[in-house]
Design a protein that fits this description.
Layout: H1 8-16, E1 28-32, E2 44-47, E3 66-69, H2 71-80, E4 85-88, H3 92-102, E5 108-114, H4 119-127, E6 131-142, H5 148-155, E7 161-164, H6 167-176, E8 189-192, H7 195-201, E9 209-212, H8 218-229
Helix pairs in contact: 6-7
């Protein structure tokens, strides 16, 4: 299980509920930043990742409509106190379509993202007439190596699959592999959230198979595990 907290824990619980043994191997480390918007009062808040929710703690923000990608991020936003949360089904492109349908042009949007993320989204939103304040509210660092428990499980032939939810996670995982670990993946399946993630996982590494989820969400990822467990 390569995703970072806080999504890691519920994903491990869901995997365990299917009778499998999840191994925590987060390949990204996330640090939150304090949000500062000055006098900018948004008409809507836009989130492309649930990692941004941890920095949106000001209760004065929570009555502002919040538009997000994915049901998991929507649940996290509601748990943090947001009252009006609407989720796009799968990708940032879906979120852009949703915003165009729900939010009038010239509205003020707070786009809360990670450092290095969200530039294309901001440009696209401005191109549709929105006034966008892009703020980096978290920083992502790649892990420098696989956790020792994951290495031991690979060496013992105990790993059936590696679940990867983002391209950046895939790149971090591939980079962290030592030469001795690479051949061990010939007996392991990769389960990818999207075609882009699958492409990153296949860069210079041979797997038993790379399986792409039918939809970019956790249930579809878990369905790939169910197929193998049957």
């Amino acid at each position: 299980m390569t995703r970072p907290p806080p999504g890691l824990a519920p994903t491990m619980t869901a995997v365990a509920a299917r009778g499998l043994h999840p191994i925590a191997a987060p390949m990204l480390h996330v640090s939150q930043r304090t949000l500062s918007t000055g006098s900018f009062r948004p008409d809507a808040i836009v989130l492309t990742s649930g990692q941004a929710v941890g920095s949106l703690t000001d209760p004065q923000l929570h009555d502002i409509p919040c538009y997000v990608v994915g049901d998991a991020t929507a649940r996290r936003a509601r748990a943090a106190g947001f009252v009006h949360v609407t989720a796009a089904s799968g990708t940032a492109d879906d979120l852009l379509v949703l915003l165009q349908a729900a939010v009038p042009p010239a509205a003020r949007l707070l786009l809360a993202v990670g450092q290095g993320y969200g530039q294309e989204m901001a440009v696209a939103l401005r191109g549709h007439g929105y006034r966008v304040l892009r703020r980096c509210v978290y920083v992502v660092r790649a892990a420098t190596g696989l956790p020792s428990n994951a290495v031991a499980a690979l060496q013992a032939g105990q790993v059936r699959a590696v679940m990867v939810y983002s391209t950046r996670t895939a790149e971090a995982f591939i980079t962290a592999l030592t030469p001795a670990l690479v051949p061990l993946l010939l007996g392991v399946e990769a389960i990818a959230m999207s075609d882009g993630v699958a492409a990153a996982l296949g860069a210079g590494v041979r797997w038993r198979d790379i399986r792409v989820a039918a939809r970019p969400d956790q249930d579809a990822m878990l369905d790939c595990l169910s197929h193998d467990a049957a």
